[in-house]
Fold:
Amino acid sequence: MEENKNNLAFGRKNYVLMLAGIAVLALGFFIMTLDTEPYGLGFLGITLGPLIVLAGFAIEFFAIMAKDKTKK
Structure:
């Protein structure tokens, strides 16, 4: 009987996508801090930053749901 030595929940593809999603999330939050309007009510704090954060969460969702072809 063969023993599976790789007991990780996800494959390499999933982890790479998760790291990319975390980087996009961090970028979105960083962009929100660049807003010079009071209380972050400018374009960067209200529109662009949250859209990039939303894209980061979408990447994270895809990273979790993606099936790695190398993992059996």
In short: The first helix runs from residue 12 to 33. The chain has two helices and no strands. The two ends are 16 Å apart (CA to CA). Residues 12-65 form one domain.
